[in-house]
Amino acid sequence: MTDLLTRRLDILNRAEGGTLLAGGAQGVEKESLRVRPDGELSLARHPAALGSALTHPHITTDYSEALMEFVTGTHSRAEDLVQELADIHRYVYAEMGDEMLWNQSMPCRLPGEADIPIAWYGTSNSGMLKHVYRRGLAVRYGKSMQCIAGIHFNYSLAPQAWPLISELAGGAQAQQSEGYLALIRNFSRYSWLLMYLFGASPALDAGFMRGREHELQALDENTLYLPWATSLRMSDLGYQNRAQSGLKPCYTDLKSYLDNLYHAVNQPWPPYEAIGTRQNGEWVQLSTHILQIENEYYSSIRPKRVARRGERPLRALHERGVQYVEVRCMDIDPFSPVGFELPAARFLSAFLLMCALDDSPLLPQRGWCQESGDNFALVVKEGRRPGLLLGKGGAQVPLADWAHALLDRIALCAQALDAAHDGGNAHAAALELQRQKIDDPARTPSARVLAGLRETGMSFSEYFLDLGRRHALAFRNQPLGAAERAVFDAESRRSIQEQEELERTQTGNFDDYVAAYHSSLYD
Fold this sequence. Notes:
Elements: H1 4-14, E1 25-35, E2 59-61, E3 67-71, H2 78-94, E4 100-102, H3 125-141, E5 151-156, H4 161-165, H5 172-190, H6 192-198, E6 203-205, E7 217-220, E8 223-225, H7 254-264, H8 270-275, E9 278-279, E10 282-283, E11 301-304, H9 313-320, E12 324-330, H10 342-357, H11 370-382, E13 389-392, E14 395-398, H12 399-421, H13 426-439, H14 445-456, H15 460-476, H16 482-505, H17 510-518
Helix pairs in contact: 1-12, 5-10, 6-11, 10-12, 10-13, 12-13
């Protein structure tokens, strides 16, 4: 007798000549702060040569004018994905002057809160909506927290796969949506493994805490850390928000998830009501609700659907179902020039395929996230502690034992992906690299960061500035060819023209635009 994972893999291996598993898609969104040559945060505007941050499909900004975001297209092959990300970096470096990208999830030395520049997107109503939303993030969470950066990994199975493996009697859209919700439930159970394997932020610049109380230890006078931490970015040092503490989507079905977020974007929160939406005639936040918009909900994974221009993400999901998932807990790999290595992409594909195909029972309605949430929180702060135990079904099990058991399951998916792509062993080899980290925690990125700090005697900021200089030199020594550069140049010009057209042709004032945006959720 075979279990559900192996049965589903067999179905997909036999479908469409064994090529169906190669038909999934993956993409990356990578954030990086721009810094000056001395390692201080850049206060300069987004480089004009890179086009419009509002309308460029691949080069934009996130919270701050200095927080760049690179967005790849979707690819079926991890090699193509990482190559596109590298090409974006090479183009950007050619237009940055003497500035560099800060290739670490925790920020560089930051100026005072007032001096951190909020991203600007022009005077169109859609551009102002993005800008005012970020003003709201500033008043709700502080600007420093918004300078934390990461990797978002987007993943989908081929749409034809879901009807073949679904046990749901509904139509294709419902089968696909519920399949992704099942994936997310398993992800919530096992995402601690990703933090152990890929967490790369066990330390930070001491100035980041700005006098707040914390439990960090001093590595030197300018560096704070936790000795066994994997990802301080994903710990409670990151986004702390009492308003969001009650948002615990159970991922039982799409309707309950949407209802939970719909409530949050329509429910006032007293501290935000005290701030108001305007101060001295200026917009300071889009609403006084728990969430200004649904994207404000911070989670390690999200169900997603590409929205049309001006369409709310919730409405897109409600009307057309889940299209892919966005994994949001990955730290930047500071030892990789692009911040994301090819083996990581291959392993994530196998990990998420396992989450999609393996049995995924519903999570308990009450306290569903307690055990998985506790495991995640424990690993981000103490993941490399020898003999660490995690909760599993009410029992305590060694992290290493559970990790190896999961890797055995993921290995089945890695082998299937290799067979579907080219018959090689690239995915299996990527998995074995992760197994080495279980056997030897010194191989994890978080351990390598701390070892580098100790061996060089550098502070956090000095160490990553030095590493960033080397990455910058590598990109500048390998510029794009003329033909490749021409494609990027044309995209930059087109994005500027599109923003100018938006600003020239828009009608109505911003107040009415915000009101219409808030009312555009599904009925």
